[in-house]
Write a structure and sequence with these properties.
Radius of gyration of chain A: 18 Å
Strand order of the largest sheet of chain B: 2-3-4
Oligomer: heterodimer
Shape of chain A: globular
Distance between the termini of chain B: 52 Å
CATH class of chain A: Alpha Beta
CATH architecture of chain A: Alpha-Beta Barrel
Number of strands of chain B: 5
Strand order of the largest sheet of chain A: 1-2-3-4-7-8-9-12
Helix content of chain A: 25-40%
Largest sheet of chain A: 8 strands, parallel, barrel
């Protein structure tokens, strides 16, 4: 599978999120899973069961870190304590790349714990790119930024969301975690063509793809991660893979979590798209590289 | 409006308390219109007004933070009931918004805050405080640091001047009620959740659990982690005083004096107790080596 400098020249296939309800199954059955994505913040603790579980997972599986609170788009400096703890965790997991969201969520030391949408302005591009570079330099691993689902647009915006994403990743020289479900949700809420979004993204920067389920309400669509991926999202995924070639793919399922097998089976549906695609000729992409094989029990 | 001003404005709007029926308030604290405020920076679309778009984030914020705190205090919820508990959490969060990148610490100030807000205790202030203190101690014990423990053989080198460090995850509480029984009963019926990715939260209600009757009867409790499970261990008064003195940095000799200063035990009885305490502590790994930078 194509590797690039934004995913640490790795060649990961289909992964799922590591979730508490699945721990017993994973340790008892030791299923073959290409990789697990962890939410970094769940393991940025001083001790206890979470870290012991993580170490056991790391003995058997490949793990990639995904964060929810770096807030690359926040106008104020990053929290140094947060960065230090995150770096400690990256040393533990040896994650080949690290992802977090293209959003903001804190100001003046107060945290909303939400992934709030950015105003798509050139000032925001400069601020966000500078923060991504700072984090990337501090952590010394590739960063991929994820597009978020949004429910609001702002008068201030000077460009589309995908133009903003492109401007930021170019200025920061970072990767993209392309969440095709988030593109779909936002396209429903803001009335744009999701394929125009996907067709405009610089494919050579895509480190990873997210798929997930969402919920449609009378007046808007919510990113709920609580059921299988819907067909329109698989359609967007197919187009993304057509452009990028096989790319590390992860299914997010965070609420009403069913059995491990159900989640894994849903994720593996991505293989029908991955296996029929061919790696495109992308500048900077490496088709075959010296990567560590997953240690499957 | 620059980026910082924009973010301050939206954060203020997102974190503004909801109405009692969990809707966005139509007016702000100065009496001005929330609709006008939302229109000043949020575009409407053909489905939603600016107000409605902002309201999604406003409600989402409160559902997320209240759920995070409620998850740490299921026994307090069961004790007070959903209505009072929900009001308590909202009032607490208005005064104590998150100041950390992690939701883990959001409920850390609740026991202290409750001391100053007896109106939520339903005339059972001591019981309410005991439950809140024990539930937060559980959180600290659950994922607090664990250092290399001293072994029984290390104890032979101890002198009256020795400083013994307690495991950071070990919490010590003196409680007016035997609330370990109550908290255990509730915790067995609930499970902790991880932080998830960017999925939205829904408002959830606590589950109903039959609570044991509580009669005032002081206990001393050690809340600690052993093989990654949290345990409550009742202590006698002398053991509690000894551990508190050590935790406060007093040398071993001084800590032992503090423990037995009011004891009616004979010197032989005290010696036997001390041996018993150290035997248990060694078995459970409660004493640990000083960190290198502590000398």
């Amino acid at each position: 599978m194509p590797a690039n400098r934004f995913n640490g020249f790795s060649e990961y296939g289909v992964g799922i999120g590591l979730r508490v309800p699945h721990y017993d199954h994973i340790f008892a059955e030791q299923p073959i899973v290409d990789w697990f994505e962890i939410i970094s913040e769940n393991y940025m603790v001083d001790g206890g069961r979470a870290l012991e579980i993580l170490d056991q997972i790391l003995d058997r599986y490949r793990v990639v870190q995904h964060g929810v609170s770096m807030y690359f788009g926040s106008a104020q400096p990053a929290d140094r304590e947060h960065l230090k703890r995150l770096k400690t965790l990256t040393r533990r997991t040896k994650t080949p790349w690290l992802s977090d969201h293209l959003c903001w969520g804190s100001v003046d030391g107060r945290y909303t714990h939400d992934l709030l949408p950015m105003p798509y302005t050139f000032e925001a591009v400069r601020t966000t790119a500078a923060r991504i570079r700072e984090v990337q330099d501090f952590l010394e691993i590739p960063i991929a930024v994820e597009n978020v689902s949004s429910y609001a647009e702002f008068h201030q915006s000077e460009m589309t969301e995908w133009e903003f994403l492109n401007e930021v990743v170019e200025a920061a020289d970072c990767g993209i975690l392309l969440d095709v479900n988030n593109i779909y949700v936002s396209s429903q809420n803001h009335g744009f063509d999701p394929f125009e979004y996907i067709n405009s993204v610089p494919v050579e920067r895509i480190a990873q793809i997210h798929v997930a389920g969402h919920s449609k309400f009378e007046k808007y669509t919510l990113d709920t991660h609580d059921h299988p991926v819907l067909d329109p999202v698989w359609g967007l995924y197919a187009r993304a893979i057509e452009r990028t070639g096989p790319t590390a793919t992860l299914l997010e399922w965070d609420d009403n979590i069913p059995s491990f097998n159900e989640v894994h089976s849903e994720a593996l549906k991505a293989n029908q798209y991955l296996e029929s695609s061919t790696p495109p000729a992308i500048p900077g992409a490496v088709v075959s590289s010296n990567v560590t094989e997953a240690v499957h029990p | 409006m620059n980026l910082l001003e924009f973010q301050r404005r939206m954060a203020e709007d997102v974190m503004r308390p909801l109405t009692p029926d969990f809707q966005m308030r139509p007016t702000m604290s100065d009496g001005s219109s929330t609709q006008a405020r939302a229109e000043s920076y949020i575009k409407p679309n053909d489905q939603l007004t600016s107000f409605e778009r902002l309201e999604i984030y406003n409600r989402q914020y409160w559902f997320r933070v209240t759920e995070a705190v409620a998850e740490d205090y299921p026994a307090l919820n069961a004790l007070l009931g959903d209505t009072i508990f929900s009001r308590l959490i909202l009032e607490y969060l208005k005064e104590n918004p998150s100041t950390s990148f992690t939701l883990r610490n959001l409920g850390s100030k609740l026991p202290q805050w409750l001391e100053a807000h007896p109106e939520f205790a339903n005339r059972r202030q001591d019981l309410t405080l005991d439950v809140a203190r024990l539930e937060w101690a559980y959180v600290e014990a659950f994922d607090g640091a664990s250092l290399s423990p001293l072994m029984a053989s290390d104890f032979t080198f101890l002198t009256a001047e020795s400083n013994l460090r307690l495991q950071p995850h070990l919490q010590l509480l003196d409680l007016k009620y035997p609330v370990d029984e109550l908290v255990l009963a509730v915790h067995q019926e609930t499970s902790r959740r991880d932080i998830m990715s960017n999925a939205v939260s829904e408002r959830k209600q606590g589950s109903k659990v039959r609570l044991p009757k509580m009669r005032r009867s002081p206990i001393y409790l050690a809340i600690h982690r052993y093989e990654n499970s949290v345990y409550y261990r009742r202590l006698d008064h002398e053991a509690f005083l000894l551990l508190i003195a050590l935790q406060n940095g007093r040398p071993l000799g001084s800590a032992l004096e503090a423990a037995f200063v009011q004891s009616s035990l004979s010197p032989e009885g005290q010696a036997a107790k001390i041996q018993e305490y150290f035997s248990h502590a060694a078995e459970l790994g409660w004493f640990c080596k000083q960190a290198e930078n502590e000398g």
